[in-house]
């Protein structure tokens, strides 16, 4: 509902009202607290029948912790037309540089490691990076909640810049590893904070569309990025490839960060957000309060638990013995032990838990997390070796193979935008989510038929398009559905938890794909190429470059194609089975109404609720009890009787 469309219901025109200090103050509160139109208000509501003291207790307790959320809501009151344009322009610049960074720097690590004599350590570096990308999300989300979105963006940017600076000036592979770790902290922060800020400032009906539009740079940079990377490597070298983003990233993020910090500062000056006073505390006391609010011990437990699980999943294909290696078993057992310890700590001992117990009661959050994990597990089962499969099986050039590898991502981006448009006008997401998951299932299943050498090119391309269509619908709808199910105070951590569980699913899918490939491919090569020596088969297994030296139609090339097709079939069958479960899970999701609100479960404004609560406490037993946001229209109705006259927001403020 637009600002101009709102109307406020009371009983008389302002200049005809008898003066009463308490009632006048009640009227002055109305512009801050009203969020529902009269036809959305429960009938026959009166102040005696409703007392929000108990209903809002949990949210207001959370408000005491989540000062970052308070600052966001307070800042939203100071945005005007031009500052809002600046905010979305800043998001656009941030989205573009984020995608350009992603599409270019991934090509540099191999050259950097080779120049510094550490090419064999690339897998270890990438493992550390993937673990930090997953584990860093709850830490960044928690920090953004207790500080502010702008402050968290500055911190993430500093890590990003420090990481690339160290890599660009590295004289050893160890320095590169340190730089990658710092960069990963910043990168996961920028990735998460963009999604959080979009959810902060958009209503449910627009959120899917805005998310989709800000993913458009990935389509553009899918073609621009590789060309830039090639030009950089052929001219100035990989050091400048990293170094250019030390300049470009801060430059492109500056409009967004400046706008966020400006709004937070202006809201503070205007007194729109309460400020937590810590001046009386000692330095040690402040550190203790910060650690308590961050739930530092809980973050350490969760990080150790997730790392213990992800390390074996990502390293089983490279360590000696694979899953039979004792170190892998010890880490998995340690992760399984720490998991219930994390739960006990958050449920019983943490004052401000990283994952609040109410998350475990939220059907939408749990189901969407499981859908994300299963969907990404299925995706990585098919995608890890897809490029190698295409190079070996199809007589395509490297350029066309690269284009093929981008088809699914481009389709996903385009149809995520379409999903946003559909949700804008239908105001629901569940049917579209189920439809998307079904389309994705069809795309994965069709690959079983088209995987072989005799499968047509068009059929193989369409399997990727279908998976992109379904993935675009599913990604957009599931995220909006989960965010609709939580109040604003839980938004950041909900987003982080869902992305974390999704990352775990991706790691499981990649690990299982690697295990199946490494265990079955040598046997299949021996089955179809029994005349080759074991050493020759090992060479073909370890290098697609050696495979492509044999022309299509030769005995060796055709034998390798048959082996690749058989192993890919096993991966696709497993991926197809996993793709079925998200459909059934989605059926049990609540079909939230995506309206003109930040979320679907709480209509109140945390800043206003806190202000009214403090006012009530200050007045003692003065006879005025503030109402929750969706009950605020009843204040004047109770005070002046039942005759109703509509006021605009400006007229009430004039009163």
UniProtKB/TrEMBL annotation:
Topological relation to the membrane, as annotated: Multi-pass membrane protein
The entry's keywords: Ion transport, Membrane, Transmembrane, Transmembrane helix, Transport
Transmembrane segments: 152-170, 176-197, 209-228, 240-263, 296-315, 327-345, 365-391, 403-422, 429-448, 496-517, 571-593
Entry-linked PROSITE patterns: MFS
Keyword Transport in record: yes
SUPFAM superfamilies xrefs: MFS general substrate transporter
Domain spans labelled Major facilitator superfamily (MFS) profile: 87-593
Cellular compartments annotated: Membrane
Protein origin, superkingdom: Eukaryota
GO cellular component, one term: plasma membrane
GO BP field: monoatomic ion transport
GO MF annotation: an example: transmembrane transporter activity
Family named by the database record: Belongs to the major facilitator superfamily.
Protein name (database record): Drug:h+ antiporter
Biological classification of the source: Eukaryota, Fungi, Dikarya, Basidiomycota, Agaricomycotina
């Amino acid at each position: 509902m637009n600002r101009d469309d709102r109307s406020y219901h009371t009983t008389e025109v302002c200049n005809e009202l008898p003066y009463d200090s308490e009632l006048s103050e009640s009227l002055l509160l109305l512009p801050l607290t009203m969020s529902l139109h009269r036809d959305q208000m429960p009938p026959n509501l009166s102040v005696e029948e409703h007392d929000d003291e108990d209903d809002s207790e949990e949210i207001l307790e959370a408000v005491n912790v989540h000062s970052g959320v308070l600052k966001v809501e307070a800042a939203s009151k100071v945005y005007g037309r031009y500052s809002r344009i600046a905010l979305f322009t800043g998001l656009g610049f941030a989205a573009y540089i984020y995608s350009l960074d992603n599409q270019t720097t991934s090509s540099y690590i191999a050259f950097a490691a080779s120049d510094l004599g550490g090419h064999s350590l690339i897998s270890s570096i990438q493992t550390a990076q993937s673990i930090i990308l997953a584990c860093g999300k709850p830490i960044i989300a928690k920090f953004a909640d207790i500080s502010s979105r702008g402050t968290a963006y500055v911190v993430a940017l500093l890590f990003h810049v420090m990481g690339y600076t160290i890599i660009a000036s590295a004289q050893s592979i160890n320095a590169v590893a340190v730089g990658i770790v710092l960069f990963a902290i910043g990168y996961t922060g920028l990735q998460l904070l963009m999604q959080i800020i979009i959810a902060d400032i958009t209503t449910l009906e627009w959120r899917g569309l805005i998310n989709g539009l800000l993913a458009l740079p990935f389509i553009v940079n899918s073609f621009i990025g590789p060309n830039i990377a090639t030009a950089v490597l052929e001219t100035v070298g990989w050091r400048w490839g990293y170094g250019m983003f030390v300049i470009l990233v801060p430059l492109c993020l500056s409009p967004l960060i400046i706008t966020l910090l400006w709004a937070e500062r202006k809201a503070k000056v205007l007194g729109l957000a309460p400020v937590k006073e810590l001046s009386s505390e000692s330095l040690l006391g402040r550190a203790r309060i910060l650690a308590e609010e961050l739930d530092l011990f809980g973050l350490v437990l969760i990080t150790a638990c997730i790392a213990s699980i992800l390390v074996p999943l990502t390293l089983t294909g490279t360590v000696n013995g694979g899953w039979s290696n004792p170190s892998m078993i010890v880490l998995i057992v340690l992760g399984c032990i720490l998991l219930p310890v994390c739960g006990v700590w958050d449920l019983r001992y943490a004052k401000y838990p990283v994952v609040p117990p109410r998350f475990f009661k939220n059907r939408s959050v749990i189901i969407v997390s499981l859908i994300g994990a299963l969907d990404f597990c299925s995706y990585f089962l098919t995608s890890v070796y897809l490029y190698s499969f295409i190079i070996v099986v199809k007589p395509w050039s490297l350029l066309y193979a690269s284009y093929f590898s981008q088809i699914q991502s481009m389709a996903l981006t385009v149809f995520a935008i379409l999903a946003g448009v559909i949700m804008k006008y239908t105001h629901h997401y569940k049917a579209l989510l189920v439809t998307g998951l079904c389309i994705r299932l069809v795309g994965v299943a069709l690959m079983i038929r088209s995987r072989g050498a005799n499968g047509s090119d068009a059929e193989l391309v369409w399997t990727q398009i279908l998976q992109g269509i379904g993935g675009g619908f599913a990604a957009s709808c599931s995220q909006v559905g989960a965010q609709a199910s939580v109040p604003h105070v839980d938004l950041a951590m909900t987003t982080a938890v869902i992305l974390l569980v999704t990352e775990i699913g991706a790691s499981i899918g990649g690990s299982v794909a690697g295990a199946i490939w490494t265990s079955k491919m040598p046997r299949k090569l021996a089955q179809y190429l029994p005349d080759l020596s074991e050493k020759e088969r090992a060479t073909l297994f370890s290098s697609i470059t050696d495979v492509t030296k044999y022309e299509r139609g030769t005995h060796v090339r055709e034998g390798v194609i048959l082996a690749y097709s058989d192993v890919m079939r096993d991966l696709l069958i497993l991926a197809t089975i996993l793709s079925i479960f998200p459909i059934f899970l989605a059926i049990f999701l609540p079909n939230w109404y995506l309206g003109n609100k930040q979320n679907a479960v709480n209509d109140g404004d945390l800043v206003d609720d806190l202000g009214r609560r403090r006012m009530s406490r200050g007045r003692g037993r003065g006879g005025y009890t503030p109402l929750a946001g969706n009950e605020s229209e009843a204040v004047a109705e109770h005070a002046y009787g039942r005759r109703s006259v509509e006021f605009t927001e400006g007229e009430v403020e004039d009163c």
